[in-house]
Design a protein that fits this description.
Length: 155
């Protein structure tokens, strides 16, 4: 038996297995960007959240396109992600009628064309969120103990 012959071999096997399992659970930002075009709105929303958590600068253009998604939840998570990444929302409201949303999307596109959109560094907090992690920002949880003092979701 290999395990009895050498404790080093056993440790090497454990480390190798850990690396394989952890790599299987991690997806690259490219994989998440591919999921933005999934037929499943839940997958699109999850990909949006993961890209924002990763601070993926390359996702801004595809995210702006998702502001026109037919699914209201996808649009909501998308504007939350763009606000987290860029610190701007260009007055986009995911729940407004299509005409108002389209005007805001045009503002996003114009700002991207004109170089007016800057992407924050991944660790740079949005104003007023210094104690909130990115995952918590999407669901309104706070690190504070009092549930009445939870941080609101990113506007």
């Amino acid at each position: 038996m290999i395990l009895r012959r050498s404790p080093f071999t056993f440790c090497a096997l454990v480390v190798a297995a850990s690396l394989v399992l952890s790599a299987a659970g991690c997806q690259s930002s490219a994989a998440h960007r591919r999921r933005l075009s999934s037929r499943n709105p839940l997958e699109r929303a999850q990909a949006v959240v993961r890209l924002a958590e990763m601070g993926d600068r390359g996702a801004v253009h595809p995210l702006v396109e998702l502001l026109e998604d037919p699914d209201r939840a996808v649009r909501m998570y998308t504007i939350l992600a763009l606000t987290r990444l860029c610190g701007e929302d260009f007055d986009y409201k995911y729940y407004e009628p299509e005409a108002e949303r389209a005007a805001a999307v045009r503002r996003w596109r114009a700002a991207l064309r004109n170089g007016e959109v800057t992407v924050r560094r991944a660790a740079e907090p949005v104003a007023g969120e210094s104690h909130t992690t990115s995952a918590q920002a999407f669901d309104g949880r706070s690190t504070r103990g009092d549930p009445d003092e939870r941080d609101p979701p990113i506007p």
